[in-house]
Amino acid sequence: MKDKSAYKTIGEVCEILNLIDPETGRKKTHVLRFWEKHFTEMKPSLIYKGRRYYSEKNISIIKKIKQLLKDEGYTIKGSKKALSDNNNLVDTSKQSNISSEKIISLKQKIKDLKKYING
Helix (H, G, I), strand (E, B), or coil: what is residue 89? Predict the structure, then answer.
């Protein structure tokens, strides 16, 4: 069994994030490669023969990207901005003891209010 903190392959990350085609059962590795091109925060280590290996920090960032794109319906551009804003807020939250979950919740409430106001 692999150590939890060990680097993960692209296939293992697909399994962790449930990026698997429901019809064929194939892992959607192309999705991670596509996101790599658009998000500079995703920096897998390229080790043996150019294979991608992801740290726990990489996987955490990818989970945020997936949440923004797939769950919350952000565009690539919107996701980049949200990640940038979230990173800035997380830095200040360390000083004010606000958890990142609360920040995400507040951002969602603001988004909902904007939708309500704009009709």
Answer: helix
